[in-house]
Design goal:
Elements: E1 3-9, E2 14-21, H1 25-33, H2 35-38, E3 49-54, E4 61-67, E5 73-84, E6 88-96, E7 108-118, E8 121-130, H3 133-142, H4 144-152, H5 155-159
Antiparallel strand pairs: 1-2, 2-8, 3-4, 4-5, 5-6, 6-7, 7-8
């Protein structure tokens, strides 16, 4: 499994996930740059994602929804802040209504995804920072660790194809 470490810190309001992939940096970058590849690994395995918009440029917006086994749809969005191809990008990630307008009842996180060459493959560090400890606790209670870990662990299968 690619995920090697998961930790959260209520003082800094961060959730950090580290993963290692047996693939070159550029190949890992392609997973995030290509919405058709990304939807094969975004979200827990039982909640497949569909990306509707995917503008991975500073100021760009990404919208998607995940579909539950019962057919319920859960929408989300990214607002892209920086892009440093192929070593990472930063974005604000939020929950959305069906029309992809932000759902202000749920937390928004600022995320930094960094990729570095490591031991013949790639080490990815995913850091999400929340506005408050309560916001972080809310997503922890919603199962973000299990969902994100399950999502990231699917990437190896995609990289092998």
């Amino acid at each position: 499994m690619p995920v090697t470490d998961v930790s959260h810190d209520m003082d800094t309001r961060t959730l950090t996930i580290v993963a290692e992939f047996a693939a070159p940096l550029q190949r890992v970058w392609q997973v995030y740059a290509d919405p058709r590849q990304l939807e094969r690994v975004w979200g827990p395995p039982t909640y497949p994602a569909t990306f509707v918009d995917h503008d991975l440029r500073p100021g760009g917006r990404v919208t998607y929804y995940m579909t539950s086994p019962e057919g319920e749809k859960f929408a989300g969005y990214w607002e892209i802040v920086t892009v440093d191809e192929p070593t990472g990008f930063t974005f604000d990630d939020g929950f959305a209504h069906e029309d992809f307008t932000p759902n202000s009842d749920l937390p928004v996180s600022h995320n930094e995804y960094r990729f570095v060459a490591f031991d013949g493959g790639t080490r990815a560090t995913y850091v999400g920072t929340y506005a408050s400890a309560d916001a972080l606790q809310k997503v922890l209670d919603m199962g973000i660790v299990e969902g994100a870990t399950g999502s990231i662990n699917q990437i190896d299968g995609l990289l092998a194809t």
